[in-house]
Amino acid sequence: MNLIENIKEGLRSIQSNLLRTILTALIVSIGIMSLVGILTAVDSIKYSIDQTFSSLGANSYDIVSKGYTNRYSENGRQGRIYPPITYLQARQYKELTGDNGRVSLSAFISGATIVKNGNVKTNPNINVQAGDENYLLNENYNVEVGRPFSNSELENGANVAIVGNEISEKLFKGKSPVGHSIFMLGRRFKVVGQLEKSGNNMGGGGADRLIIIPLVTGNQMPRQKALTYEIKTVVLSKESLFYAMAESTGIMRKVRRDPLGQEDSFEINRSDSMLKSMNEITGYLKVGGGLVGFITLLGASIGLMNIMMVSVTERTREIGVRKALGATAKQIRQQFLIEAIVICFLGGIAGVLFGVLMGNAVASLIGNGGFIVPWLWVFVGLMVCVGVGLISGYYPAFRASKLDPIESLRYE
Protein backbone atom coordinates (compact mmCIF):
# COMPACT_ATOMS: atom_id res chain seq x y z
CA MET A 1 0.00 0.00 0.00
CA ASN A 2 1.56 3.28 -1.07
CA LEU A 3 1.34 6.63 0.71
CA ILE A 4 -1.60 7.89 -1.36
CA GLU A 5 -3.67 4.81 -0.56
CA ASN A 6 -2.71 5.15 3.09
CA ILE A 7 -3.93 8.76 3.11
CA LYS A 8 -7.21 7.73 1.50
CA GLU A 9 -7.63 4.98 4.10
CA GLY A 10 -7.01 7.46 6.90
CA LEU A 11 -9.58 9.88 5.46
CA ARG A 12 -12.13 7.06 5.10
CA SER A 13 -11.59 6.17 8.72
CA ILE A 14 -12.15 9.80 9.73
CA GLN A 15 -15.35 9.95 7.66
CA SER A 16 -16.69 6.75 9.19
CA ASN A 17 -16.21 8.20 12.68
CA LEU A 18 -17.45 11.69 11.86
CA LEU A 19 -18.92 12.59 15.27
CA ARG A 20 -15.75 11.58 17.11
CA THR A 21 -13.69 13.51 14.55
CA ILE A 22 -15.76 16.68 15.09
CA LEU A 23 -15.55 16.45 18.88
CA THR A 24 -11.79 15.80 18.73
CA ALA A 25 -11.28 18.69 16.31
CA LEU A 26 -13.25 20.96 18.66
CA ILE A 27 -10.79 20.18 21.46
CA VAL A 28 -7.92 21.34 19.27
CA SER A 29 -9.85 24.31 17.88
CA ILE A 30 -10.48 25.67 21.40
CA GLY A 31 -6.75 25.56 22.13
CA ILE A 32 -5.84 27.23 18.84
CA MET A 33 -8.66 29.76 19.25
CA SER A 34 -7.28 30.87 22.62
CA LEU A 35 -3.73 31.13 21.26
CA VAL A 36 -4.58 32.96 18.03
CA GLY A 37 -7.34 35.00 19.71
CA ILE A 38 -5.08 36.39 22.43
CA LEU A 39 -2.27 37.20 19.99
CA THR A 40 -4.71 38.76 17.52
CA ALA A 41 -6.21 40.93 20.26
CA VAL A 42 -2.75 42.10 21.30
CA ASP A 43 -1.79 42.88 17.70
CA SER A 44 -5.04 44.75 17.11
CA ILE A 45 -4.62 46.76 20.32
CA LYS A 46 -1.03 47.53 19.34
CA TYR A 47 -2.23 48.69 15.91
CA SER A 48 -4.77 50.96 17.60
CA ILE A 49 -2.04 52.41 19.82
CA ASP A 50 0.27 52.89 16.83
CA GLN A 51 -2.47 54.71 14.92
CA THR A 52 -3.29 56.91 17.91
CA PHE A 53 0.26 57.99 18.59
CA SER A 54 1.50 58.09 15.00
CA SER A 55 -1.25 60.60 14.26
CA LEU A 56 0.57 62.94 16.64
CA GLY A 57 3.62 62.70 14.43
CA ALA A 58 7.01 61.16 15.08
CA ASN A 59 8.62 64.53 14.31
CA SER A 60 7.12 66.47 17.18
CA TYR A 61 7.84 67.08 20.85
CA ASP A 62 6.08 68.67 23.81
CA ILE A 63 7.44 71.12 26.35
CA VAL A 64 5.86 71.24 29.81
CA SER A 65 6.88 72.58 33.19
CA LYS A 66 8.97 70.09 35.16
CA GLY A 67 6.89 68.55 37.92
CA TYR A 68 3.65 69.50 36.20
CA THR A 69 2.75 65.85 35.58
CA ASN A 70 3.56 64.88 39.22
CA ARG A 71 5.71 62.04 37.91
CA TYR A 72 9.05 63.80 38.27
CA SER A 73 11.30 62.21 40.90
CA GLU A 74 14.94 62.09 41.92
CA ASN A 75 16.35 58.91 43.50
CA GLY A 76 12.87 57.77 44.45
CA ARG A 77 11.95 61.08 46.04
CA GLN A 78 9.61 63.72 44.74
CA GLY A 79 11.67 66.17 42.71
CA ARG A 80 11.44 69.92 42.80
CA ILE A 81 8.30 71.32 41.21
CA TYR A 82 9.08 74.38 39.11
CA PRO A 83 6.75 77.27 38.36
CA PRO A 84 4.32 76.66 35.47
CA ILE A 85 5.05 77.93 31.99
CA THR A 86 3.29 81.27 31.75
CA TYR A 87 1.42 82.71 28.79
CA LEU A 88 4.15 85.29 28.16
CA GLN A 89 6.89 82.63 28.26
CA ALA A 90 4.99 80.43 25.83
CA ARG A 91 4.44 83.36 23.46
CA GLN A 92 8.09 84.34 23.68
CA TYR A 93 9.23 80.80 22.87
CA LYS A 94 6.94 80.75 19.83
CA GLU A 95 8.33 84.04 18.55
CA LEU A 96 11.97 82.98 19.05
CA THR A 97 11.41 79.64 17.31
CA GLY A 98 10.11 81.43 14.21
CA ASP A 99 10.04 79.33 11.05
CA ASN A 100 12.23 76.54 12.47
CA GLY A 101 9.13 74.65 13.58
CA ARG A 102 5.36 74.84 13.71
CA VAL A 103 4.57 75.75 17.32
CA SER A 104 1.18 75.40 18.99
CA LEU A 105 0.30 76.68 22.46
CA SER A 106 -2.42 75.18 24.60
CA ALA A 107 -3.68 75.15 28.17
CA PHE A 108 -5.90 72.74 30.06
CA ILE A 109 -8.83 74.81 31.31
CA SER A 110 -11.11 72.34 33.02
CA GLY A 111 -11.89 68.63 33.38
CA ALA A 112 -15.08 66.90 34.52
CA THR A 113 -17.05 69.83 33.11
CA ILE A 114 -20.83 69.92 32.65
CA VAL A 115 -21.97 71.52 29.39
CA LYS A 116 -25.56 72.65 28.85
CA ASN A 117 -27.79 73.52 25.93
CA GLY A 118 -31.12 74.68 27.31
CA ASN A 119 -32.47 71.93 29.55
CA VAL A 120 -30.12 69.29 28.12
CA LYS A 121 -26.73 68.76 29.75
CA THR A 122 -23.82 66.36 29.46
CA ASN A 123 -22.30 64.11 32.07
CA PRO A 124 -19.48 65.71 34.11
CA ASN A 125 -16.79 64.15 31.90
CA ILE A 126 -16.04 66.91 29.39
CA ASN A 127 -12.54 68.38 29.03
CA VAL A 128 -12.06 72.00 28.00
CA GLN A 129 -8.82 72.92 26.25
CA ALA A 130 -7.64 76.30 24.97
CA GLY A 131 -5.51 76.38 21.83
CA ASP A 132 -4.04 78.76 19.28
CA GLU A 133 -4.20 78.77 15.48
CA ASN A 134 -1.83 75.76 15.15
CA TYR A 135 -3.40 73.62 17.85
CA LEU A 136 -5.84 71.70 15.63
CA LEU A 137 -3.16 71.02 13.03
CA ASN A 138 -0.46 69.88 15.48
CA GLU A 139 -2.87 67.63 17.39
CA ASN A 140 -4.28 66.19 14.14
CA TYR A 141 -7.86 67.24 14.93
CA ASN A 142 -10.06 67.64 11.87
CA VAL A 143 -13.17 69.83 11.81
CA GLU A 144 -15.98 67.78 10.27
CA VAL A 145 -18.77 70.38 10.44
CA GLY A 146 -18.32 74.14 10.55
CA ARG A 147 -14.95 75.86 10.59
CA PRO A 148 -11.83 76.49 12.71
CA PHE A 149 -11.43 79.73 14.66
CA SER A 150 -10.93 82.89 12.64
CA ASN A 151 -7.95 85.19 13.24
CA SER A 152 -10.15 87.84 14.84
CA GLU A 153 -11.69 85.28 17.22
CA LEU A 154 -8.23 84.08 18.23
CA GLU A 155 -6.82 87.57 18.71
CA ASN A 156 -9.81 89.07 20.52
CA GLY A 157 -10.62 86.11 22.72
CA ALA A 158 -14.16 85.54 21.46
CA ASN A 159 -16.54 83.20 23.28
CA VAL A 160 -16.58 80.56 20.55
CA ALA A 161 -16.00 76.83 20.77
CA ILE A 162 -15.34 73.70 18.72
CA VAL A 163 -17.03 70.64 20.22
CA GLY A 164 -16.41 66.90 20.03
CA ASN A 165 -18.74 64.43 18.34
CA GLU A 166 -20.16 62.93 21.55
CA ILE A 167 -21.01 66.37 22.94
CA SER A 168 -22.82 67.30 19.74
CA GLU A 169 -24.89 64.10 19.76
CA LYS A 170 -25.79 64.55 23.42
CA LEU A 171 -26.80 68.22 23.28
CA PHE A 172 -28.13 68.55 19.74
CA LYS A 173 -29.49 65.03 19.05
CA GLY A 174 -27.62 64.46 15.80
CA LYS A 175 -28.29 67.94 14.40
CA SER A 176 -25.52 70.32 13.41
CA PRO A 177 -24.34 72.29 16.47
CA VAL A 178 -22.87 75.10 14.37
CA GLY A 179 -24.47 78.44 15.16
CA HIS A 180 -26.02 77.26 18.43
CA SER A 181 -24.89 78.21 21.93
CA ILE A 182 -23.66 76.10 24.84
CA PHE A 183 -23.23 77.10 28.47
CA MET A 184 -20.22 76.04 30.58
CA LEU A 185 -17.86 77.45 33.21
CA GLY A 186 -20.22 80.36 33.80
CA ARG A 187 -20.09 81.57 30.19
CA ARG A 188 -22.07 81.15 27.02
CA PHE A 189 -20.13 80.05 23.94
CA LYS A 190 -21.17 79.98 20.30
CA VAL A 191 -20.34 76.71 18.52
CA VAL A 192 -18.47 77.29 15.26
CA GLY A 193 -17.29 73.75 14.51
CA GLN A 194 -17.52 70.06 15.33
CA LEU A 195 -14.58 67.64 15.38
CA GLU A 196 -14.51 64.34 13.53
CA LYS A 197 -15.42 61.27 15.55
CA SER A 198 -12.22 59.90 17.06
CA GLY A 199 -13.52 56.74 18.74
CA ASN A 200 -12.88 55.23 22.14
CA ASN A 201 -9.09 55.42 22.36
CA MET A 202 -7.62 53.28 25.17
CA GLY A 203 -10.77 53.47 27.24
CA GLY A 204 -11.05 57.27 27.15
CA GLY A 205 -13.24 59.60 25.17
CA GLY A 206 -10.48 60.93 22.90
CA ALA A 207 -11.56 64.10 21.10
CA ASP A 208 -15.24 63.14 21.30
CA ARG A 209 -15.53 64.60 24.82
CA LEU A 210 -13.35 67.62 24.14
CA ILE A 211 -14.24 71.29 23.77
CA ILE A 212 -11.65 73.67 22.29
CA ILE A 213 -11.77 77.42 22.85
CA PRO A 214 -9.36 80.16 21.71
CA LEU A 215 -6.18 80.47 23.76
CA VAL A 216 -6.78 84.13 24.61
CA THR A 217 -10.30 83.27 25.76
CA GLY A 218 -8.97 80.59 28.08
CA ASN A 219 -6.32 82.96 29.42
CA GLN A 220 -8.97 85.55 30.29
CA MET A 221 -11.34 83.18 32.12
CA PRO A 222 -11.48 83.44 35.94
CA ARG A 223 -9.70 80.61 37.75
CA GLN A 224 -8.47 79.63 41.17
CA LYS A 225 -4.85 78.98 40.17
CA ALA A 226 -2.56 80.02 37.35
CA LEU A 227 -2.69 78.10 34.10
CA THR A 228 0.33 76.18 32.92
CA TYR A 229 0.82 76.25 29.17
CA GLU A 230 1.92 73.33 27.06
CA ILE A 231 3.99 73.81 23.93
CA LYS A 232 4.08 71.41 20.98
CA THR A 233 6.66 71.87 18.26
CA VAL A 234 6.46 70.06 14.93
CA VAL A 235 9.53 70.07 12.67
CA LEU A 236 9.21 69.46 8.95
CA SER A 237 12.04 66.93 8.75
CA LYS A 238 12.37 64.00 11.14
CA GLU A 239 16.15 64.03 10.58
CA SER A 240 16.42 67.48 12.15
CA LEU A 241 14.38 66.50 15.23
CA PHE A 242 17.30 66.15 17.65
CA TYR A 243 18.84 69.42 16.47
CA ALA A 244 15.49 71.17 16.89
CA MET A 245 15.08 69.73 20.40
CA ALA A 246 18.53 70.97 21.39
CA GLU A 247 17.72 74.39 19.96
CA SER A 248 14.38 74.45 21.81
CA THR A 249 16.18 73.58 25.04
CA GLY A 250 18.38 76.63 24.63
CA ILE A 251 15.43 78.88 23.80
CA MET A 252 13.40 77.65 26.77
CA ARG A 253 16.32 78.08 29.18
CA LYS A 254 16.61 81.65 27.96
CA VAL A 255 12.86 82.25 28.22
CA ARG A 256 12.63 80.65 31.67
CA ARG A 257 15.86 82.35 32.79
CA ASP A 258 17.38 79.15 34.12
CA PRO A 259 20.76 80.00 35.73
CA LEU A 260 23.93 78.58 34.17
CA GLY A 261 24.74 75.19 35.67
CA GLN A 262 21.20 74.63 37.01
CA GLU A 263 19.00 71.87 35.63
CA ASP A 264 16.22 72.64 33.18
CA SER A 265 12.99 73.88 34.74
CA PHE A 266 11.00 72.17 31.98
CA GLU A 267 10.69 68.79 30.27
CA ILE A 268 10.87 68.00 26.56
CA ASN A 269 9.02 64.81 25.61
CA ARG A 270 9.00 63.28 22.17
CA SER A 271 5.59 62.17 20.89
CA ASP A 272 6.89 58.68 20.06
CA SER A 273 8.52 58.07 23.46
CA MET A 274 5.20 56.93 24.92
CA LEU A 275 4.66 54.78 21.85
CA LYS A 276 7.90 52.91 22.57
CA SER A 277 6.80 52.32 26.16
CA MET A 278 3.42 51.06 25.00
CA ASN A 279 5.12 48.73 22.51
CA GLU A 280 7.14 47.23 25.36
CA ILE A 281 3.96 46.67 27.36
CA THR A 282 2.20 45.00 24.42
CA GLY A 283 5.29 42.82 23.96
CA TYR A 284 4.90 41.54 27.52
CA LEU A 285 1.17 41.02 26.89
CA LYS A 286 1.99 38.98 23.81
CA VAL A 287 4.40 36.75 25.75
CA GLY A 288 1.88 36.28 28.55
CA GLY A 289 -0.98 35.64 26.13
CA GLY A 290 1.11 33.19 24.14
CA LEU A 291 1.96 31.31 27.33
CA VAL A 292 -1.71 31.07 28.33
CA GLY A 293 -2.62 29.90 24.82
CA PHE A 294 0.21 27.34 24.87
CA ILE A 295 -1.02 25.88 28.16
CA THR A 296 -4.53 25.61 26.73
CA LEU A 297 -3.16 23.94 23.61
CA LEU A 298 -1.14 21.54 25.75
CA GLY A 299 -4.35 20.43 27.44
CA ALA A 300 -5.95 19.98 24.01
CA SER A 301 -3.03 17.82 22.80
CA ILE A 302 -3.34 15.56 25.86
CA GLY A 303 -7.05 15.18 25.14
CA LEU A 304 -6.29 14.33 21.51
CA MET A 305 -3.74 11.70 22.53
CA ASN A 306 -6.25 10.11 24.88
CA ILE A 307 -8.90 9.92 22.15
CA MET A 308 -6.39 8.45 19.68
CA MET A 309 -5.45 5.80 22.27
CA VAL A 310 -9.12 4.90 22.61
CA SER A 311 -9.37 4.74 18.82
CA VAL A 312 -6.45 2.29 18.66
CA THR A 313 -8.11 0.08 21.26
CA GLU A 314 -11.45 0.14 19.43
CA ARG A 315 -9.83 -0.72 16.09
CA THR A 316 -7.53 -3.49 17.30
CA ARG A 317 -9.31 -6.10 15.15
CA GLU A 318 -9.14 -3.79 12.10
CA ILE A 319 -5.40 -3.41 12.61
CA GLY A 320 -5.05 -7.20 12.81
CA VAL A 321 -6.93 -7.62 9.52
CA ARG A 322 -4.74 -5.05 7.78
CA LYS A 323 -1.57 -6.69 9.04
CA ALA A 324 -2.83 -10.10 7.97
CA LEU A 325 -3.36 -8.67 4.48
CA GLY A 326 0.24 -7.44 4.34
CA ALA A 327 0.23 -3.97 5.87
CA THR A 328 3.57 -3.12 7.45
CA ALA A 329 4.15 -1.46 10.82
CA LYS A 330 5.24 1.72 8.96
CA GLN A 331 1.95 1.87 7.04
CA ILE A 332 -0.06 1.40 10.24
CA ARG A 333 1.88 4.25 11.87
CA GLN A 334 1.31 6.44 8.81
CA GLN A 335 -2.44 5.84 8.87
CA PHE A 336 -2.88 6.85 12.50
CA LEU A 337 -0.50 9.81 12.17
CA ILE A 338 -2.41 11.02 9.10
CA GLU A 339 -5.68 10.75 11.01
CA ALA A 340 -4.26 12.76 13.94
CA ILE A 341 -2.79 15.44 11.67
CA VAL A 342 -5.98 15.82 9.61
CA ILE A 343 -8.11 16.09 12.75
CA CYS A 344 -5.73 18.71 14.17
CA PHE A 345 -5.64 20.60 10.87
CA LEU A 346 -9.43 20.75 10.65
CA GLY A 347 -9.61 21.91 14.25
CA GLY A 348 -6.83 24.39 13.56
CA ILE A 349 -8.70 26.02 10.66
CA ALA A 350 -11.80 26.45 12.82
CA GLY A 351 -9.69 27.65 15.76
CA VAL A 352 -7.81 30.22 13.64
CA LEU A 353 -11.07 31.56 12.18
CA PHE A 354 -12.78 31.89 15.56
CA GLY A 355 -9.55 33.17 17.14
CA VAL A 356 -9.21 36.03 14.65
CA LEU A 357 -12.86 36.98 15.13
CA MET A 358 -12.59 36.77 18.92
CA GLY A 359 -9.35 38.76 19.03
CA ASN A 360 -10.76 41.58 16.90
CA ALA A 361 -13.96 41.61 18.94
CA VAL A 362 -11.99 42.01 22.18
CA ALA A 363 -9.76 44.70 20.65
CA SER A 364 -12.79 46.64 19.35
CA LEU A 365 -14.02 46.99 22.93
CA ILE A 366 -10.72 48.61 23.96
CA GLY A 367 -9.61 50.63 20.95
CA ASN A 368 -10.56 51.67 17.44
CA GLY A 369 -7.98 49.68 15.55
CA GLY A 370 -9.99 48.22 12.68
CA PHE A 371 -10.14 44.56 11.62
CA ILE A 372 -6.77 42.79 11.75
CA VAL A 373 -5.86 39.45 10.16
CA PRO A 374 -2.48 38.43 11.65
CA TRP A 375 -1.22 36.21 8.85
CA LEU A 376 1.90 35.32 10.83
CA TRP A 377 -0.17 33.92 13.70
CA VAL A 378 -2.51 32.18 11.25
CA PHE A 379 0.47 30.38 9.71
CA VAL A 380 2.00 29.66 13.13
CA GLY A 381 -1.34 28.37 14.41
CA LEU A 382 -1.71 25.92 11.52
CA MET A 383 1.89 24.74 11.89
CA VAL A 384 1.30 24.26 15.61
CA CYS A 385 -1.73 22.11 14.72
CA VAL A 386 0.39 19.86 12.52
CA GLY A 387 2.98 19.64 15.32
CA VAL A 388 0.31 18.79 17.88
CA GLY A 389 -1.04 16.10 15.54
CA LEU A 390 2.42 14.56 15.14
CA ILE A 391 3.22 14.66 18.84
CA SER A 392 -0.19 13.50 20.08
CA GLY A 393 -0.63 10.87 17.38
CA TYR A 394 2.84 9.33 17.37
CA TYR A 395 2.54 7.17 20.50
CA PRO A 396 -0.92 5.80 19.63
CA ALA A 397 0.33 5.15 16.07
CA PHE A 398 3.48 3.46 17.39
CA ARG A 399 1.39 1.32 19.74
CA ALA A 400 -0.93 0.35 16.92
CA SER A 401 1.99 -0.64 14.68
CA LYS A 402 3.39 -2.96 17.38
CA LEU A 403 0.19 -4.95 17.86
CA ASP A 404 0.50 -8.66 17.14
CA PRO A 405 -1.73 -9.50 14.15
CA ILE A 406 -2.86 -12.89 15.57
CA GLU A 407 -3.77 -11.43 18.94
CA SER A 408 -5.47 -8.49 17.21
CA LEU A 409 -7.65 -10.83 15.13
CA ARG A 410 -8.74 -12.65 18.29
CA TYR A 411 -9.56 -9.32 20.04
CA GLU A 412 -13.24 -8.74 20.82
Automatic annotation (TrEMBL):
Domain (MacB-like periplasmic core) ranges: 21-218
UniProt keyword terms in alphabetical order: Cell membrane, Membrane, Transmembrane, Transmembrane helix
The ABC3 transporter permease C-terminal domain, residue ranges: 291-405
Membrane topology: Multi-pass membrane protein
Example of a GO cellular component annotation carried by this entry: plasma membrane
Membrane spanning residue stretches: 21-42, 283-307, 340-366, 372-395
Location, primary (coarse class): membrane
Superkingdom, taxonomy of origin: Bacteria
InterPro entries: ABC3_permease_C (IPR003838), MacB_PCD (IPR025857), Macrolide_Exporter_MacB (IPR050250)
Short name of one Pfam family: MacB_PCD
Location within or outside the cell: Cell membrane
Molecular functions (GO terms): transmembrane transporter activity
Signal peptide limits: none
Coiled coil: none
Family: Belongs to the ABC-4 integral membrane protein family.
Protein name: ABC transporter permease
Organismal lineage: Bacteria, Pseudomonadati, Bacteroidota, Cytophagia, Cytophagales
